[in-house]
Amino acid sequence: MSVPMSRALYTAAQVRAQDRHAIEQWGVPGFTLMQRAAHAAFGVLRTRWPQARRLLLLCGPGNNGGDAFLLGALALQAGFEVRAATLSDTAQGDALLARRAFEDAGGVRAGAVEACSRERFDVIVDGLFGTGLSRAPEGAAAQWIAWANASGRPILALDVPSGLDADTGVARDPCVRAAATVTFVAHKRGLFTADAGDCCGALHLDRLELPEPTSPPPDAELLRAHGLPPRRRNSHKGSNGHVLALGGDAGTGGAIRLCSEAALRAGAGLVSVATRAAHIGALNAARPELMAHAVEQQADLAPILRQASVLAIGPGLGQGDWGRALWQAALDCDLPQVVDADALNLLAAHPAPLPARCVLTPHPGEAARLLQTDTATIQADRFAAVRELAARYRAVVALKGSGSLIATPEGRVAVCPWGNPGMAAGGMGDVLTGIIAALLAQGLSPWDAACLGVGLHARAGDHAAAAGGERGLLASDLFLPLRELLNADPN
Predict the structure, then answer these.
(1) What confidence tens digit (pLDDT) does each residue in 129-158 have?
(2) Domain spanning 8-215: which superfamily?
(3) Which is more confident, 490 or 137?
(4) In which residues is AMP bound (predicted)?
(5) 471 vs 111, which has greater pLDDT?
(6) Which of 37, 66, 123, 211 is positioned for an S-S bond with 95, CB 3.0–4.6 A?
């Protein structure tokens, strides 16, 4: 798997191994890497806050603190006023050299933040822990983080916001809430999922002039932004697949409407809907391009199934007799399908082998049911959860949430860097199901359909939010930007 460094995601242990390799095999001194990190971070600080002239450094005893001290030395040389609050008077190795360089440049160290708390700073630099903390900050460090977060001053985090788990994206309490983070050597996978969006701010990667690693391969990869290539001029509706959306039990016709219209908007040539008879009139009136079929019993479904090339099952399906009958019919047919919502809950309650070329799209609660655990366990390590889901159900899995993850049964993982809190609203998952089903119908593999579908869905949500704000965003607001993004230059 060849992934550009801009999209490659590594565990913290893998990045530390790259550091060691640079020092031991390429002969780059650790202090030189620290100097490069300080230059990179100071460059971001000056670009992002060009009027800043007063800095407060929060310095831990390790190399993350050393990065901060060297940034402070650069700032002093540029005419800034700089104070440094230090967690400990002890330091060793490169961190000690960095502290001495700061003092030689005229830097002033305060023993505690309290000595600086009445002063006004333009930017606070977080150099407390980076990736070097495996538990919640305690004692003075916890107090400093809480004070910095409440100060009203922007925080620049070095490598990783202190308190954020670099592997899982889980924010321990307390955790730095940075306005920007400069991460070094390689992207850490935890900076793109779970709580990371609330803690990292704007992310900047600096490779510190190191060559790209040849091994090991990255643990995961970021999705890339693209659409689909133009269609052949000599094509027809049958060339682009026939999606059958199954769902919409009593009172949930809107869910299957959103799913089926999303399949149309994402380019499926034909979209049929198998739903309760009560919903047919509304579907025909609102979206006549859909072929709506009343299905009240499993026998009604057989002729419709024969015409379909892909199934989208789950939105509004329910878990009663009607929903179970449609779900069983889907399990019995050998068609690619996207499984969502109550279809996932039925699968969790009664595990069964899935047809080939399936994509599952659980949110954390559904994922917990599928793995017989709880939501907190899923969120504690989303990478482990999505890999276990894909392996257990032998399907591609898209684990939804902040920083959605897509996994194959073999363990390949992609992470979505787009999306916004406005998308935490009813109907968004139904739209995603329809998008992925349409992409399957147009010939994409389950992996490619899930990756492109998740990316398009999140990017469409960002475009819609940019037009009117996040609060009040509707799932149907994604349809227009979705169409535009899908038809954009695929490169």
Answers:
(1) 989 788 999 999 999 999 999 999 999 999
(2) YjeF N-terminal domain (3.40.50.10260)
(3) 137
(4) 400-404, 429
(5) 471
(6) 66
Backbone angles phi and psi of 467, in degrees to 5: -80, -25
What pLDDT score does 119 carry? 78
Residues 239, 247: contact at Cβ < 8 Å?
Answer: no
Q: Where in the chain is the domain with CATH 3.40.50.10260?
A: 8-215
Least confident of 87-91, 205-209, 305-309: 87-91
User: pLDDT, tens digit, for every residue of 424-447?
Assistant: 999 999 999 999 999 999 999 999
Name 181's bridge partners.
Answer: 157, 203
Burial zone of 199 (CB within 10 Å; 0-12 exposed, 13-18 middle, 19+ buried): buried
C-beta pairs of 102-105 under 8 Å, 24+ apart in sequence: 102/69, 102/70, 102/72, 102/73, 102/76, 104/73, 105/72, 105/73, 105/76, 105/77
Token pair of 203 as six digits = 């992310």
398 bridge partner residues: 406
Annotated binding site for (6S)-NADPHX: 63-67, 130-136, 159, 255, 316, 363, 430
**Which segments are annotated as binding site?**
63-67, 126, 130-136, 159, 162, 255, 316, 363, 400-404, 429-430
Q: Which residues are annotated as a binding site for K(+)?
A: 64, 126, 162
249 CB-near residues (< 8 Å, 6+ apart): 276, 316, 317, 318, 320, 322, 323
Portions of the chain given CATH number 3.40.1190.20: 237-486
Q: What's phi and psi for 328, nearest 5 deg?
A: -65, -40
Single-letter residue type at 116? C
Give the residue among 266, 314, 283 at the shortest CA–CA distance from 460: 266
| Residues making up the binding site for AMP | 400-404, 429
pLDDT of residue 238: 80
